[in-house]
Specification:
5 strands; about 160 residues; alpha+beta; signal; Glycine zipper family protein; three-stranded antiparallel sheet; about 60% helix
């Protein structure tokens, strides 16, 4: 009776250790979607600010993502100003006023300028994510080990393979 309780206890403990979490789930994946990319860690979609926070443990990846964040901010500002400069004359024309098409043309130019900046941001972000993911190490003792319950001539026991 005492032996069977010990075996069952060891069996339960071994399974609880085998299914422990490791740092591999902390990797960030890149998903291409219409109009850009989504960055996902586990089940959570990350913003640029959250990416910077997630990469604080890897110095090289942090430098790369901060460069991408600067480009992202510039592209957002240039694109928003361009969108405003295009939208204002269109709104004036729809409202019956006199539209300033020169301003709309300049706005369209700013939108066009923001496109390569956004592409540069995406490349820098993907590079930072690759650097971050390559620097991850598993933290679980059991990742490259195999534990089995086996029956042999001597009885029932566990086999641990490295």
């Amino acid at each position: 009776m005492k032996t069977s309780i010990i075996i069952i206890s060891l069996f339960i403990v071994s399974f609880s250790l085998t299914f422990g979490q490791s740092a591999v789930t902390d990797s960030i994946t890149v998903k291409r979607v219409f109009g850009g990319y989504q960055f996902i860690q586990g089940e959570k979609r990350l913003t640029m600010h959250q990416l910077v926070n997630a990469m604080e443990t890897n110095e090289l990846a942090l430098q790369q993502i901060k460069s991408a964040q600067s480009s992202h901010n510039l592209a957002t500002i240039v694109g928003a100003v361009g969108g405003f400069m295009v939208g204002w004359p269109i709104g004036a024309a729809l409202g019956g006023g006199e539209p300033n098409w020169t301003m709309a043309g300049i706005g369209a130019g700013l939108i066009v300028v923001s496109i390569p900046i956004t592409q540069s941001t995406n490349k820098k972000t993907i590079q930072a994510i690759e650097t971050y993911n390559s620097g991850l190490q598993t933290s679980s003792f059991w990742d490259n080990k195999e534990l089995k319950l086996a029956i042999s001539e001597g009885g029932v026991g566990f086999i641990l393979r490295f």
